[in-house]
Amino acid sequence: MLHLRAVCPPERTAEAVDLLREHPGTAHLIVHRGVAVTPEGDLVEADVAREAADEIVDALCGLGLDHSGGITMEALDTALSDAADAAEESAPGEAADAVVWQELLGRTGEESRWNATFQAFLVIACLLAAVGVLTDSPVTVVGAMVVGPEFGPLAAIAMGLVLRRWDLVRRAGLALVAGFPVAMACTLAGVLLGTAAGIFEPDVIVRNHEVDFVYQVGPASFVVALLAGAAGMLAMTSAKSAALVGVFISVTTVPAAGYVVVAAVAGRWDRAGFSLLQLLVNLAGIVLAAAIVLILRRRKQRSGVLLRPLSRG
Fold first, then answer.
1. Measured between alpha carbons, how far is 132 from 153 in angstroms, rounded to an integer?
2. Exposed, middle or buried, 162 (CB in 10 Å: 0-12/13-18/19+)?
3. DSSP 144-204
4. Among 152, 180, 187, 252, which is disulfide-ready with 126 (CB 3.0 to 4.6 Å)?
5. What pLDDT, in 10s, does the model give residues 25-44?
6. Backbone angles phi, psi at 30, to 5 degrees
7. Are 19 and 59 in contact (CB under 8 A)?
8. Phi/psi at 251 (nearest 5 deg)?
9. Neighbouring C-alpha atoms within 13 Å toward the C-beta of 90
């Protein structure tokens, strides 16, 4: 269940209440008259089944509440109520399969911004990848995969392409286009500093074979990226965030960026080129698969909405 709060202008409250009261996926409808201060108006609250949330939010936006008032939602961990159980049973579909598009748009939009936190995680991930390459440590490379924050912007690009939100595509693209070069530049400085201090010897990558998978690009690389992108978007759209860890571990994005730097310092431009290609292949595969998943889920959800009135008749 999700808890919905809508700030309504007084002249729109009756319509919003009727809309929520008539929808079978709604429970625990509450109206607070005149309590909203900014903007002024009434506060309408309800618990809604996740599989009905997208339809309800669209209907409230149709009343203009996203402009004249405000709509917020939050997940409920526990709902002990026969009315809530009835709402979930009456709402079409399964909660695990439901996509709340406004919620997803907000999540991807937030995670797609190029800011200090995103850049810091990307720098740390690339440095970890470089250390893993230099020490021939697959475990460290896997750690770099987990730390890397790049899936957020990739998911945002897919979301923007499907919904034609070009502002989201531009913002997420900027995070990747600016974030990776900055992270790689910081990694270059770290590798050069470590080499000068005698901590690392970049030439050892010729003898390190445990991490060769980072630069060995081929058809399997694209297949893995497609599978990871599909799994990642399924995890985001079904609110199963734990599955994202497996996605991070399966794709060679940040490790490839770290390998580019190490190979360049070692003068192995062939490996640097293949690593860069590996990075681009993985990024493209993830976006493509994520977009396909979104398209399929959107079509399924729309067909369910169109068929529901027929099933009632």
1. 24
2. middle
3. HHHH--THHHHHHHHHHHHHT-HHHHHHHHHHHHHHHHHHHHHHHHHHHHHHHTTS--GGG
4. 187
5. 999 999 999 999 988 999 99
6. -130, 140
7. yes
8. -110, 145
9. 15
Q: What are phi and psi of 56, to 5 degrees?
A: -65, -45
Angle at 164 between CA 161 and CA 169, to 5 degrees: 55
In this prediction, residue 205 has a pLDDT band, given cuts at 50, 70 and 90, of confident
Q: What is the dihedral of CA 270, 271, 277, 280, to 10 degrees?
A: -140
Q: What is the DSSP string of 60-74?
A: HHHTTHHHHSEEEEE
d(CA 291, CA 220): 20
Please determine, for residue 312, whether its predicted confidence score (pLDDT) is greater than 50. no
The amino acid at 170: R
Backbone φ and ψ for 136, nearest 5 degrees, come out as 55, 45
Between strands 41-48 and 26-36, the pairing is antiparallel
What's at 44, amino acid-wise? V
Q: Which amino acid is at 299?
A: R
Alpha-carbon separation of residue 168 from 87, 101, 119, 257 (angstroms): 34, 14, 18, 24
